Amino acid sequence: MPDIYCVFGNPIAHSRSPAIHAAFAASTGEDLLYTARLAPVDGFAAAVAAFVAEGGRGANVTVPFKEEAFRLCDELTPRAARAGAVNTLSFVAGRILGDNTDGAGLVADIAGNLGFALSGRRILLLGAGGAARGVIEPLLAGAPAALSIANRSADKAEALAAAFSDIAAVDAGNFAKMAGKSFDLVINATSASLSGDSLPLPPGIFAPGALAYDMMYGKGETPFLKLAREQGAARCADGLGMLVGQAAEAFAVWRGVRPATGPVLAMLRAALSG
Ligand code: NDP
């Protein structure tokens, strides 16, 4: 019998995670079965309990359950505790262990796949929700020259900056507050691209050679990436590599084996463009 894993979300039908983990299992020779499970919006904890009772070894967690997953855990890794959100659960000896691999996935994509070293760069993070919170510490670990956070609701950006003030001084405010500054890397961690909205970014924020990165994927050129291209960003990237990167990190947490991400990313890219 293979070890069983799943991803919980709502909605979940279009999740790419089962295909990604099946490919990882095939390439590493690990014997596991990974499925997508729809959890009722008010029934996440019960869905997890049922999966554990069936013998589940671990699970990923996606929208809208990452913060509830955080609260459900008996034990957290330092990066999950910092993120305030959990995307990777391990079920060990009756206990629920929580981790957050989103930040590692983002940094692996930007620094690894895209070859964009973070060291010494000026980074602007757009958004102050769960995704933004989860990537701040891994970004700071890359030793950027500076990190700024801009969000539609300035108070949330400021609260996030305050939560990381023991690691670095982070400039924060609304989008207009970034006027007059320029950045080497601008990461869209808002969900504006989901609804097709563009962000009111001041002109001039993309420094020469800048990389624009949208965590959104599978939607073609998002309004953010279109704006970035028009404002002169040298390179644009979507979040597909982050998705594969966070999955690889979760796979390594569960199985102790790190799968290669390149072939899986190429497979997904081909499927999305086909
Ligand atoms: P949250 O709901 O926690 O946060 C949403 C954020 O987006 C808030 O900062 C909110 O601002 C902002 N926002 C929403 N709509 C708009 C808008 N129309 N204009 C400006 N700002 C807006 O979402 P998450 O942080 O969990 O997810 C954010 C995005 O990241 C999603 O698109 C998700 O798909 C993507 N993601 C991708 C991953 C990957 O692997 N590629 C992994 C994780 C997330 P305000 O505070 O003002 O409401």
UniProtKB/TrEMBL annotation:
Listed GO CC annotations: cytosol
Keyword flag Oxidoreductase: yes
Pfam families: SDH_C, Shikimate_DH, Shikimate_dh_N
EC number: 1.1.1.25
Class of this enzyme: oxidoreductase
Residue ranges of every copy of the Shikimate dehydrogenase substrate binding N-terminal domain listed in the record: 7-89
Family: Belongs to the shikimate dehydrogenase family.
Name of the protein in question: Shikimate dehydrogenase (NADP(+))
Source species: Azonexus hydrophilus
Lineage: Bacteria, Pseudomonadati, Pseudomonadota, Betaproteobacteria, Rhodocyclales
